[in-house]
Amino acid sequence: MCFGRTLALPVAMCAILGSVLFSAIGAEDPPAPHPPAPADASAPGETAATSDGPAPAQPEIASTPAMSEWSFEKYSALVEATGRKMTMSQGTFDSVQKRKDSAIARIEKYLAGHFKEANPRVVGAFRALPREYFHYNYEGKYSTAASTYETEAKPWGIGYGSALSDYLGQAYMTQLSNPQPTDVVLEIGTGSGFQSSLLSRLTKEVYTIEIIKPLGEAVADIIAKGGFDNVHQKVGDGYYGWPEVEGGFDIIMVTCAALYVPPALLEQLKPGTGRLIIPVGPAIKGKQILYVYTKDTEGKVRSKRDVGVYFIPMTGAMQEKPKPAAK
Q1: What's the whole-number mean pLDDT along residues 141-149?
Q2: Which of 67, 101, 154, 321 holds its CA 20 to 30 A away from the CA of 108?
Q3: How far, in Å, CA of 183 to CA of 315, rounded?
């Protein structure tokens, strides 16, 4: 996933206005308050929480073998194996781990405020995934891992106009997609690789496309050496989806603003289970809406408005091809 302020940048992660959050690279834009959830904020297929009975036990979400029993030694070895500069000390690593519980609690509270309850599998996936592994600027060749699990959630630049998006926004998008263990997922905009790796803990297979070649090639190595064997990554234009994947996708998550919904993405949604999470609208604040599209067993597609958002625009074919005529 990627985020940027300058509209000329190639891809972006969201900043959800009003109902969720606003984010921007840089310190000059203060975070907006997080207001109460919309009246109907449940993700597709979710059941609202009730006060009857004890709270369900938190599910165990597995790390990859490379990241199990996470330690400073494992972190250091993986950073060096991926050709990145290792700048974190043992003491700083320990401080990051201490901040993690507070960040997870913020995620859980945030999701509960917007979806009536936090999906325990989503929270468990954030707990299982060491976020500091993805904190790196590939263009500038420097690490921001020491700032992982910051108190005020914000995006961190990873170079080439992209960013590791803030963890609250990523949690919102993840729960909105309602990931299931049997799902096959397509992500448009690999960015840091965190979102696809997160989804890999919650679903069967994840396919992710990055339009920026040097970033996509670097992050492919991060994903592979992290042991995310069910994540498949390529460099390409997400406008066309990934048609070679037989059977299509249960979830398609788009992290840049489309002027219209690319026809290929709707075509690649699985009948009966498919849901597409996509921001639609021009590159003007207040003019974009996050939509959830679903496809029923007969192939009929329905849409639902979620919240107002602001993403930088989808580039590539989206900017070159006219909107298809309505059928």
Answers
A1: 96
A2: 67
A3: 27
